Amino acid sequence: MKVVNDMVEWLLQSGALTALFLFAWKFVKPWLDAKTSHASAEQSMAVWALIDQIASTAVASLASTSMTGEQKFNQAVSDVINALDRQGYAITEETAKLAVQSAYEKSPLTTKAVATTIVSKTGVTTSGNQSTED
User: What's the CA gap between 74 and 60, in Å, rounded?
Assistant: First the structure.
């Protein structure tokens, strides 16, 4: 036991333990930084997936209501912000608007107006909108 105590005392007094710690820290710190960065990226991806899922749900729930498009959009944006607030995530209104717009464009429940141009035999061009389901 005396030998172990003498070795520990020598390591402390000579500064070898400090040098060993600093040497090890030079190798461990980049590894820890990489782990932190990776965890942060994974968390961001999970939050974006959650935002996308909530926006899709909000758009789908409002698709068949009898409100105007602008009212549906504003309601979906507020639903996304409120749902994420309840989960403990604060997002900006702009982010919520982008998520709702993306969900609307991806949703098979929403109708899209397609502009059609028809040229008759007399050369008169008519334009019309027709609704299509994706």
Answer: 14
